[in-house]
Task: structure prediction
Amino acid sequence: MVQERIEAANKETVRIMMEGQPTLIGVGTALKDIPGMTPKTLLHAGPPITWDKMSGPLKGAIIGALIYEGLAKNEDKAAELAVSGEIEFAPCHHHSSVGPMAGVTSPSMPVWIIENKAYGNRAYCTLNEGLGKVLRYGAYSSEVIEMLRWMEGVLGPVIGETLRLHGPIDLKSMIAQALQMGDEGHNRNRAGTSLLIRELAPYMLQTKFDTVDKIDVLNFINSNDHFFLNLTMPACKATLDPAGGIEYSTIVTTMARNGTEFGIRVSGLGGRWFTGPSGIVKGLLFPGFTDKDANPDIGDSVITETTGIGGFAMAAAPVIVQFVGGSAGDALNFTQRMYEITEAENTVYRIPALNFRGTPTGIDIRKVVETGILPNINTGIAHKDAGVGQIGAGLVEPPAKCFEDALEAFVEDLEIKGQL
Amino acid sequence: MSNINRLFKNQLKVINIGLEAFYGDLKKQKVEVIHVDWRPPAMGNKKMVSLLNRLKS
Result:
């Protein structure tokens, strides 16, 4: 009886995920558009965390955001303010948002607005800052702050006006196309970024901004293969949010890391987080860095794997192994293993190398615990110290504890309700 | 000659189930072998097996 209810609930959860229609509708501002945002709120990646437990890159990004917002003049003042209790730290996920790496989102930042046209809910994400020393990896030097101000003053407004002329962009179709062009939507976004430029450029030329600004914006997007990541992520968030809160469902609707802990949420268990220590990413490091420099796993970008892309779609992106390590055969194997722990095959996101099989979609905590197979995540590596930035990319697994604790809570929940 | 000795005088074709290290060792010795990625349910964690069984009712 219980098993039948779980099976039905899981099918319903995945049906909602498949029916999602994430659509880019514009560029807004965090304070104005993100629900529950205040002038003293800073959002971060992963499950809830306090300042004293934050890792270096998250602390660095918080310091940078406080300087950028004009709330602190320097690193010391920012750190003082951070511990004062005046600033509210909250997970992006509690505010319909997601953020890559440290995921820090502050009130003045421009944000993508994504609407799930099938269910009417919205999701938000900052615009990608590019590579090198950037806030999302915990860097906060003057050039980082200057870049954030350019994004607020030029990048956001130019793209916002471009989208007003263009109209909404169907991200589901664009992600599906990108997967057929060698992206997996987490660590490789070259095709998605190119498809986006193709849509935006003709309309950007029609805006009334200075030609220099338009050239700068197009060059900025073109110089950063990960620009599209900040669209796949909120597209996945918008797709998953309506799939939460389905009674009896054992499907994972959130995976996220704050650099200290990895957390998951399960559809049938409401908003509860189940956490364990963040793992160390195994992969390729940039020259001059060693494993000892790496921060534990961080970022909300694992929302892609939760939706059935990213590490779950590695077979679509064999070239990614040059960035994260391994062989092209490994990329196929990673995806094939994920079918063991998922409920369904995606009806839209398909993999040419697997004869257009749909990507493994809808992680079932029962299958993870029973098989011992953990979700495969494909991610960037941040330096452990604040202010340094990205040092590599690789693969990581979540701690098994998250799934075991969630399973235990699920059974307890049914006992309390008298269902077991 | 015992059956076991007869077996080892033939060319072995091995299916390795479970621990991958045995597969690797045979490969190094150029023995024809395939590996089956098998693990005990819930990695042998009795508490988890019991929880999973309760959901199968």
User: Anything to note?
Assistant: The beta strands of chain B are 13-17, 32-36.
